[in-house]
Amino acid sequence: MGKQMTEMLKGTLEGIVLALLAEQPAYGYDITARLREHGFTDIAEGTIYALLVRIEQRGLVDVEKVPSEKGPPRKVYALNAQGTAELAEFWKTWRFLAGRIEQLNDCSTNTKEN
What we know:
- With about 110 residues, the chain is an alpha+beta fold.
- It has one domain (about 5-114): Winged helix-like DNA-binding domain superfamily/Winged helix DNA-binding domain (Arc Repressor Mutant, subunit A, Orthogonal Bundle).
- Helix content is about 70%, strand content about 15%.
- The chain has 4 helices and 2 strands.
- A two-stranded antiparallel sheet has the order 1-2.
């Protein structure tokens, strides 16, 4: 993954994970696997676990310890009301930024064509 992609992903990864949790509760490894299914193949599990700690500390998720067949209980993260509000704000900001970037792209494309 290139440096530019890595930097852009850092700014959006929390929103992406919140969006996945809005679909269904999940534990860390499951979130990483789902990210990979969506094409985010270069994200390390450690990055996701650190992010989960942060969103838990910020009160965006509810956490339930669920027994695991393979070792200690798993922490299953579920989006709560505060997390849902944060996700809505993420999408609002995303739409704003994407729209402005697209305008810049259109202006740049039009300038090159003239």
